[in-house]
Amino acid sequence: MKHILEKIKEYDTIIIHGHIRPDGDCLGSQYGLMNIIKESFPNKKVYVTGDVNNKLEFIGTPTIIDDKLFKNSLSICVDTSSYDRLSDKRINLSSYTIKIDHHKDSDKYCDYEYIKDNYISTTEIITSFYLKYKNILKMNDAAAMCLYTGLITDSGNFTYNNVTSNTFKMAVYLSKYNINIPEINNKLNKESIELLRFKGKILNDFKVTKNGVAYIIITKEDLKKYKISEEEASGLVYLISNIKEIYILFIETKEGIRARIRSKHIPINNLAKKFNGGGHILASGAILKNYDEVKELIKSADLLLKK
Ligand code: AMP
Q1: What residues are in contact with ligand 1 under a 6 Å CB criterion?
Q2: Are the C-beta atoms of 281 and 251 separated by less than 8 Å?
Q3: Exposed, middle or buried: residue 257 (CB in 10 Å: 0-12, 13-18, 19+)?
Q4: What is the CATH number of the domain that holds 205?
Q5: DSSP designation for 86
Q6: Which of 160, 284, 293 to mutate to test the pocket of ligand 1 (most atoms within 8 A of CB)?
Q7: Nearest residue (CA) to ligand 1, atom 20
Q8: Phi/psi of residue 158, each to 5°?
Q9: Per residue of the chain (307 residues), what is the pLDDT tens digit?
Q10: What is the residue with the minimal CA distance to atom 14 of ligand 1?
Q11: Do 240 and 160 share a structural domain?
């Protein structure tokens, strides 16, 4: 952590990167860190770069910045386990690169990497980083809101595996700032009529394999018919979470068929790896090339449950 602080002090321009399809922890980490650095060192130029998540625009809306801003800069990549998952990949234009992440299988792609895979979220790491150096760094309400949002989204409101006393400690600390917790929840949970109808379709159409893998396949036609975005639809994996041990949402995207794989107890990260994906022990993902691979993944998941 000391090295990260030294590098932040050293550079006048700092660019904060996140992953494709940014979630609450990614954007919360990007904007939380940006606000801490800006509040602590007002003369530094700090940018957040990468993809936008419309639902999370209350945290912040990244833009793709100009190449020339990277000159003599420090790039900090948050919550992004591998280079190919970075949304803005131009870290080679920076003078020095740092990764801050909580994923287990993190590929090395930065000059310096700080990985705490026992932390529920990257925002938990960043809040701990701030607290360690709070004699030098400054927090503000905006940073606290971003970091708190990352904590609750990646921990499923403090219910997932890897939630520890430290997670609660960070939440207690952040909640002392002027953040509107019910309003954050309202924004995260807001849904359209179309989305509610689409939930009905998922609840009708999901399938269960012989040994107990619940899954749902969402096609491009479904998205068109129900007028909902890929982002909204892919967030619905939790709908089939409470029936069986393993549950998977497949969704057609422009990159391929995205699989969001979840498990209650049985590790599924190696299953994801088998299909060139990865992730956490109980929450992983992969991009599949075609429906043969979908079938194969379902079969492999089913075998994991065979007694
Ligand atoms: P998701 O279902 O997208 O929320 O992903 C769950 C976890 O798996 C995330 O923490 C990701 O880092 C990881 N993951 C998802 N998709 C991939 C992929 N294609 N390759 C590697 N890791 C992935």
Answers
A1: 81, 103, 260, 277-280, 283-287
A2: no
A3: buried
A4: 3.10.310.30
A5: B
A6: 284
A7: 277
A8: 65, 35
A9: 999 999 999 999 999 999 999 999 999 999 999 999 999 999 999 999 999 998 899 999 998 899 999 999 999 999 999 999 999 999 999 999 999 999 987 789 999 999 999 999 999 999 999 999 999 999 999 999 999 999 999 999 999 888 999 999 999 999 999 999 999 999 999 888 999 999 999 999 999 999 999 999 999 999 999 999 998 899 899 999 988 899 999 999 999 999 999 999 999 999 999 999 998 899 999 999 999 999 999 999 999 999 8
A10: 285
A11: no
Residues 6 or more apart whose Cβ sits within 8 Å of residue 231: 21, 53, 54, 55
CA of 285 to the centre of ligand 1 (A): 4
Q: Best mutation site among 85, 263, 274 for ligand 1, i.e. most ligand atoms within 8 A of its Cβ? A: 85
Q: What angle do CA 117, 14, 178 make, to 5 degrees?
A: 70
Q: Are residues 173 and 274 in the same domain?
A: no
Question: Which of 137, 162, 188 is a domain's end point?
Answer: 188
Determine which residue's CA is closest to atom 3 belonging to ligand 1. Answer: 285
Q: Into how many domains does the chain fold? A: 2
> Atom 9 of ligand 1 has which residue's CA nearest to it?
279
Whether residue 71 is found in the same domain as residue 93? yes
Among the listed residues 4, 25, 30, 20, the one whose alpha carbon sits nearest the alpha carbon of residue 97: 4
In the listed set 159, 188, 217, which residue is the last one of a domain according to the structure? Answer: 188
Domain ranges, residue 241:
194-304
Contacts of 204 by beta carbon, 8 Å cutoff, 6+ apart: none
